[in-house]
Write a structure and sequence with these properties.
The chain has 226 residues and is of the alpha/beta class. It contains 9 helices and 7 strands. Helix 4 links the parallel strand 2 and strand 3. The chain is globular.
């Protein structure tokens, strides 16, 4: 028997509401040109001259991804999100702002990461990931030792990983899983460093809903030199 199993599903429903006609049209017209290649690829080839390449895992409605892309036109931002309504909403933001520095995988970020070369990213965002609060579901959380090892492989030395959550158990979990990997150094010196949104943060839709059991916590890590 093979030792390789597909990863457990880390996301909820793929589609909820009917997608509005304009957004449905963007799924047909805009998305195909934004999808990264299906096999291994060099992200810099997607935007020659890109100063940096960033990855956002589970971008939800895409508000953060689009706003960061608008603020940082020299950075290529690749987002992965399997939830179709979210992808459609992100396409609307990309279209309205005429962003040329965003690429979108309508699928599992773990597949995308597996196709990226070592040390190819400057930043990774994991913002308000699905909490999977029941103990028997914790193994579905996107932050696992294996994904943290992928983050370490993909980030350049000095690269940054941001995790945010308003679920206290997930915050502790992320600190333990990411902290267990010697490639990462947590940058916090004082409580304000995790309690106050970082100055470059853009509030996400899920964050605004305040569905968790604690105030939003922001954990910034730096990828140390190997
Ligand atoms: C709770 S929502 C938060 C969305 C957004 N980051 C925000 O803060 O508004 C988590 C999102 O992560 C997505 N997700 C879960 N597993 C994923 C995976 N393996 N790859 C990419 N996205 C994933 C889900 O579909 C969901 O939209």
């Amino acid at each position: 028997m093979s030792d390789h199993h597909p990863p457990l599903r880390s996301y909820g429903r793929l589609k909820t509401r009917t997608i509005k006609p304009r957004q449905a049209a963007l799924l047909e017209t805009l998305l195909p040109g934004l999808r990264p290649p299906a096999g291994p690829f060099d992200p810099r080839a997607l935007m020659p001259g890109a100063a940096e390449v960033w990855l956002e895992i589970g971008f939800g409605g895409g508000e953060h991804m689009a706003a960061q892309a608008a603020r940082h036109p020299g950075a290529l931002i690749i987002g992965a999100e399997p939830f179709q309504n979210g992808v459609a909403s992100a396409l609307r933001h990309i279209d309205e702002a005429q962003l040329t520095n965003v690429r979108v995988l309508d699928g599992d970020a773990r597949e995308l990461m597996a196709n990226l070369p070592d040390a190819s990213l400057e930043r990774i965002f994991v913002l308000f990931p699905d909490p999977w609060p029941k103990a028997r579901h914790n193994k579905r959380r996107i932050v696992q030792a294996e994904t943290v090892a992928e983050f370490a492989r993909l980030l350049k030395p000095g690269g940054a990983l941001r995790f945010a959550s308003d679920v206290a158990h997930y915050v502790d979990w992320a600190l333990a899983k990411i902290g267990a990997n010697p490639a990462f150094r947590w940058t916090a010196d004082q409580a304000a460093d995790w309690r106050v949104p970082p100055s470059d943060h853009i509030t996400t839709r899920y964050e605004e809903k305040r569905l968790g059991d604690c105030a939003p916590v922001f954990l910034d890590f730096v990828r140390s030199a190997p």
